Structure prediction request, 190 residues.
Amino acid sequence: MAFSGTGIPKYPHVQSKSSLLKASYAEAELRRSAVALGSNLGDSQTILETAIETLAQTPGIVLEARSNWYQTKAVGPPQPDYLNGCVTLQVEITAQQLLETLLGIEQQFGRVRQERWGPRILDLDLLLFDDIILDTPNLQIPHPRMRDRAFVLVPLAEIAPDWIEPVSGYVIKELLKDVDCSDVHLLMRN
Prediction:
């Protein structure tokens, strides 16, 4: 690809697939989204890292930021602790398409939905999508329980502290002040 009549390449030194994706979507309408990641079965860190790589390689999705990993107590029936984190993305797809992508990635990793709040190899939750409020039978944005969950708010506040949660009107770092964070422990810095 060259500038008109100059013979000069438009992108003379694209350094990575990520920068190529960013260049490809530079003129498209991108929406910012936040996704929570969790795992408490198998090699959770490898599973979560690979899930992020899979997201970042998906057409129409550009990884913007990622949090550190946190070890957290499980919610629900007795089970191992979770490894949790969050990512923010720039996406060229709709919220519904992003949800379908997340569910597809969960399936690729062998996720089987058997028990509500049961152990899982991979959990990907769509938390926020720009400032959209959406309530459909299969998708609620913002995620309906995110404001009550320290294991979501701690890593999200790390990478998007000033993002306004559109239902409450509060920024993430303010929502964090209202939850008990005693069971959320920094596991490792990325």
